[in-house]
Backbone:
């Protein structure tokens, strides 16, 4: 569905994306994770053609829809006018699906977009994007600012897209939801792809190691007596205490870690 | 997207339309008071009004409908507003979408080419319709008042108003593409209009004075062609930039 190879993008002297590669297959949910400024949004925008990569190759086979990080619709339009706009410019837009989704979330089509709360605006934008019948949904922080019920509902909707043969590429800061819906993940830091793979494989590939000396791994915590590292299972030294690592610990260790390559 | 663009334009266009029509009605009403200017001329300090072109002869000529409409409507009120109208229509076209981050909504669904040409064309058509309507407005009024107005002169003003207005529309649209906020293209275009008009006072640089071109109503071929080519060049450059720009 989507192949990205050696993607690089700089803004002046600042390198935003540095040689990132990944692939997304059909019926797959692929999540890009990383701290603020890691290059997630720039990666998405390069994939969509909103920003021109400095180098690299992007192959997108099929149609896509996009939910940006800032859920900005036209504030002076009413929700129903926005639906009309999507009907005219959207990709294979299913009006009935959008209307039924808006009804489900209790959004009055007569309201102006400027009268919607942040969460309602996100749900409106999501309803419109998910009503486009495309092959790949590119969603930048789709659940940010939503209440737990709405978030759960959106995650179910994303998951169900894959049952229809659709693919999803999305970014998130919320690790628990990534664990819930993502098939594969890519963790980015300072523009680089640090780890990627199937979520279960990633979780199985790392363990927490408690040691009194420095190890070849990502330092997660430092106590008075011990150092706690996240270490690849094939690099765990003998004679150390080993614990299972949660996904949150893996992410935190990689993002805050004192080295970049595991 | 055409409908959205026209909806975006509605307020600005209607404000200018009412302003133009209101000014023209005011001018028509004021024509009967031109005679009182002669009395003013007698009471005013000698030479003061002449310095501003208000000679006895000029005031007498104002009694003639053709002269009155030509000098006061095309050569003053409408002519002065046309470049400003073009700038006001064009300045937010792309910059507002970038500032409000709604450009992503459009570019994720439409090709850059479609977005560019719709954003450029829809307001340009609205601008041209209003301009043509305002230039032709005196014709039916002339017929209604049973006066005479030289159609050839109206035709010449139609050319200068459209060519001069479209040039400033293109210039402002160019800055709207370059800018990520709405204020900058407005300020730069107004400054450029003021700057080129001032420089145009110098005889050798008179081609820069677009105000004079618009209000004089004498579309010489080289100047008209120069402005048309300049507009085309700016549109071409704007298109190239729009295709390559990061959003």
Residues:
């Amino acid at each position: 569905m989507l192949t990205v190879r050696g993607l690089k993008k700089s803004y002046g002297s600042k390198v935003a994306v540095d040689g990132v590669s990944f692939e997304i297959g059909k019926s797959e949910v692929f999540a890009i994770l990383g701290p603020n400024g890691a290059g997630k949004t720039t990666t998405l925008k390069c994939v969509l053609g909103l920003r021109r990569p400095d180098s690299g190759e992007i192959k997108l086979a099929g149609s896509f829809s996009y939910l940006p990080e800032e859920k900005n619709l036209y504030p002076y339009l009413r929700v129903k006018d926005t639906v009309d706009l999507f009907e005219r410019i959207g990709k294979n837009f299913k009006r009935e699906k959008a209307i039924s989704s808006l009804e489900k979330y209790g959004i009055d089509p007569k309201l102006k977009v400027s009268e919607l709360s942040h969460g309602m605006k996100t749900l409106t934008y999501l309803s419109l994007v998910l009503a486009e019948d495309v092959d790949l949904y590119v969603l930048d922080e789709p659940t940010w600012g939503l209440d737990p019920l709405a978030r759960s509902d959106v995650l179910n909707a994303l998951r169900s897209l894959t049952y229809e043969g659709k693919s999803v590429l999305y970014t998130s800061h919320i690790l628990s939801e990534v664990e819930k819906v993502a098939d594969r993940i890519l963790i980015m830091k300072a523009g680089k792809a640090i780890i990627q793979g199937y979520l279960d494989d990633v979780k199985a590939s790392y363990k927490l190691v408690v040691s009194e000396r420095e190890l070849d791994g990502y330092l997660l915590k430092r106590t008075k007596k011990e150092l706690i590292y996240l270490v690849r299972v094939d690099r765990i030294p003998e004679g150390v205490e080993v614990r299972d690592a949660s996904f949150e610990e893996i992410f935190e260790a990689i993002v805050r870690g004192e080295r970049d390559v595991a | 997207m055409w409908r959205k663009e026209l909806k975006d334009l509605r307020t600005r266009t209607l404000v200018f339309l009412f302003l133009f029509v209101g000014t023209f009605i005011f001018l028509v009403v004021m024509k009967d008071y031109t005679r009182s200017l002669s009395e003013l001329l007698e009471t005013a300090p000698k030479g003061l009004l002449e310095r501003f072109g208000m000679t006895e002869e000029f005031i007498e000529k104002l009694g003639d409908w053709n002269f009155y409409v030509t000098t006061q409507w095309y050569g003053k009120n409408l002519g002065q507003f046309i470049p400003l109208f073009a700038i006001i229509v064009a300045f937010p076209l792309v910059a507002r979408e970038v500032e409000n981050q709604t450009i992503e909504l459009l570019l994720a669904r439409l090709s850059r080419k479609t977005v560019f040409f719709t954003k450029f064309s829809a307001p340009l058509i609205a601008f041209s319709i209003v301009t043509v309507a305002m230039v032709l407005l005196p014709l039916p009024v002339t017929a209604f008042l049973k006066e005479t107005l030289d159609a050839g002169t109206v035709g010449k003003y139609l050319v200068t108003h459209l060519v001069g207005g479209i040039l400033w529309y293109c210039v402002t649209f160019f800055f709207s593409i370059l800018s990520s906020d709405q204020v900058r293209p407005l300020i730069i275009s107004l400054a450029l209009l003021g700057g080129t008009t001032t420089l145009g006072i110098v005889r050798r640089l008179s081609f820069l004075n677009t105000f004079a071109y618009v209000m004089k109503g004498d579309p010489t071929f080289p100047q008209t062609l120069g402005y048309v080519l300049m507009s085309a060049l700016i549109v071409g450059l704007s298109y190239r930039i729009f295709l390559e720009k990061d959003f």
User: Anything to note?
Assistant: Chain B touches chain A at residues 1, 3-4, 100-102, 104-110, 244, 246-247 (CB under 8 Å).
